[in-house]
């Protein structure tokens, strides 16, 4: 009997070991399929200059572009500039065509039209996964609204006017009609899948020492692809990601089969950059000292 007991125990240990090893090596379903290649800026400079000089166009970069785009950092050090604010902000309550797949907490919920469409695309996908109880609790706030909120709530629950991402137009607070977002299926779905649609959880639980903001499972921010995928794969918050781009200068990345190249350029007077002809690209400032150019290969 002792012999059989020992053999059963040994067999159980082997089974548990196999399950652990298999789970360890299997890719996690919520992580993006991202391949990142960082370029040696010194080694590749000559080759890059030769290649880029062929079939390129020059783009002039004005200082205002530092403060425009989807990758602007807004925190206690870097406030929102007037030219940073999204120009297509509307009251969603009066634009029913934009409110698809989610509800509104009140009749004065403002958001960028473009951002509302992107959010609708995301919650429609969530609905196909059986997660459908989303509503927007807060969207864009102008400086006056932010100042009033700060006076009412204080520094524990609000930020001064100009220092909140809500003043930018790229962020929104999302709730669930069922329970708190930290526990709700909606919150878990966003944390797992938002990157696929260009959104990030801006203030995750383990990064408050970097962001300066406590965990907010309801606050999402649009940065766009491939940036949301890289941030998810590397577990970066926006502060870390922008610092990473400044250090690396150029990053090539493949996300779910789509190829991108991301460049960081520090701003200088009379600045021009070269972009290869027939390539789609986007330029965003970082709200600090330069611009990020994303080229779609």
List keywords for this structure.
297 residues, alpha+beta, Phosphorylase Kinase, domain 1, Muramoyl-pentapeptide Carboxypeptidase, domain 2, 2 domains, 5-stranded antiparallel sheet, 5-stranded mixed sheet, 31% helix, 24% strand, globular
Number of helices: 8
Mean pLDDT: 87
- By CATH, the topology of the largest domain is Muramoyl-pentapeptide Carboxypeptidase, domain 2
* Major β-sheet annotation: 5 strands, antiparallel
Describe this structure in words.
This protein is an alpha+beta fold and about 300 residues long. It folds into two domains: about 110 residues, Phosphorylase Kinase, domain 1, CATH 3.30.200.180; about 150 residues, Muramoyl-pentapeptide Carboxypeptidase, domain 2. The chain has eight helices and 14 strands. Strands 1-10-11-14-13 form a five-stranded antiparallel sheet. The protein has a five-stranded mixed sheet with strand order 4-6-7-9-8. Strand 13 and strand 14 form a beta hairpin. About 5% of the residues have low confidence.
Could you give a quick summary of the protein structure above?
The chain has 297 residues and is of the alpha+beta class.
Strand-helix topology:
Elements: H1 2-25, E1 34-38, H2 45-52, E2 56-61, E3 89-91, E4 103-104, E5 110-112, H3 113-128, E6 134-138, H4 143-153, E7 171-176, H5 185-193, E8 199-201, H6 208-211, E9 219-222, H7 227-234, H8 238-248, E10 250-255, E11 258-266, E12 271-276, E13 280-285, E14 290-296
Parallel strand pairs: 4-6
Antiparallel strand pairs: 1-10, 2-12, 3-5, 6-7, 7-9, 8-9, 10-11, 11-14, 13-14
């Amino acid at each position: 009997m002792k012999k059989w007991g020992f053999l059963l125990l040994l067999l159980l240990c082997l089974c548990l070991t196999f399950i652990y090893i298999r789970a360890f090596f299997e890719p996690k379903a919520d992580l993006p399929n991202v391949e990142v290649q960082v370029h040696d800026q010194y080694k590749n400079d000559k080759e890059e200059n030769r290649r880029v000089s062929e079939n390129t166009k020059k783009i002039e970069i004005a200082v205002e572009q530092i403060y425009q785009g989807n990758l602007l950092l807004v925190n206690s050090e870097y406030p929102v500039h007037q030219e940073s604010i999204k120009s297509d902000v509307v009251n969603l309550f009066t634009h029913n065509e934009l409110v698809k797949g989610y509800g509104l907490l009140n009749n004065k919920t403002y958001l960028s039209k473009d951002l509302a469409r992107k959010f609708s695309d995301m919650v429609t996908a969530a609905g196909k996964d059986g997660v459908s109880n989303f509503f927007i609790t807060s969207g864009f706030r102008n400086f006056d609204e932010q100042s009033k909120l700060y006076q009412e709530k204080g520094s524990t629950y609000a930020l001064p006017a100009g220092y909140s991402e809500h003043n930018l137009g790229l962020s929104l607070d999302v709730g669930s009609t069922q329970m708190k977002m930290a526990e709700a299926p909606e919150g878990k779905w966003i944390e797992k899948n938002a990157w696929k649609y260009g959104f990030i959880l801006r203030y995750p639980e383990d990064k408050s020492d970097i962001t300066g903001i406590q965990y907010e499972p309801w606050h999402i921010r649009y940065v766009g692809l491939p940036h949301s995928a890289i941030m998810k794969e590397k577990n970066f918050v926006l502060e870390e990601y922008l610092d990473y781009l400044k250090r690396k200068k150029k990053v090539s990345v493949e996300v779910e089969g789509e190829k991108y190249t991301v460049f960081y350029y520090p701003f200088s007077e009379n600045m021009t950059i070269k972009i290869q002809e027939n390539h789609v690209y986007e330029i965003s400032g970082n709200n600090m000292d330069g611009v990020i150019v994303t080229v779609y290969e």
